[in-house]
Fold Cytochrome c family protein.
Amino acid sequence: MFDTMTLTKVVGGLCGTLLVFLLGGWAADIIYGGGHGGGHGEVAQAYSIPVEDSGEAAPEEEAVPFEEIYAAADASAGEGVWRNCRSCHALEEGVNGTGPSLYGVVGRAVGAEPGYSYSGALKAVADVWSPENLDGFLEAPRDYAPGTKMTYNGLKDVEDRANLIAYLETIGG
C-alpha cells in the first residue's frame, strides 16, 4: 500500500507546490512591487512635499488644576457617574459590599470603614480621602495604589471624577 513510488510521488507533489508558491510570490512582487531593483518592499518615494519649519513648538495646553475643576463640579452630574461604582460600593452607612461603604468618604481617614478589610497598599499612599487623593485614586486605582484590591480601571475624564467626588461629598458629609 505504501511503497517507495508512493513516497516519491508525495515528496514530488510537496516540492512542486512549494515551487508554485515561490514563483507566485516572485511574480506578485514584480507586478505589485513595481518590478524595480532593491525589492523586498522597498519603494522609492515618487515625490516629496517640502514643509518649512517655523522653529516654534506647538503651544502646549496648560493643565487646569484639579482644585479649579472641583470648584466648578456638579454634584447632580456626579450622581450619574455613581452608576459605575454602585455595583461594588454602597452609600448607606456601614453597608460594605465588594468595596467599602462610601458613606462620608470625602474627608474620612483611609482604611477607616468598620468591617472592611483594606489592602496595605491603599493605606500606604494616603492618610485621608481628600478630594485630591480621591481624584488620583479614581483616575487609575492600580497606578495610584499598586497592589490595591480595587479592580476598576478608573475614570479618565477629570470632570467626571470631580462631579463624582462632589456627589460623594453630599452623602454623609
Observations:
- Residues 66-170 form a domain with the Cytochrome Bc1 Complex; Chain D, domain 2 fold (CATH 1.10.760.10).
- The chain has a mean pLDDT of 83.
- The chain is about 45% helix and 0% strand.
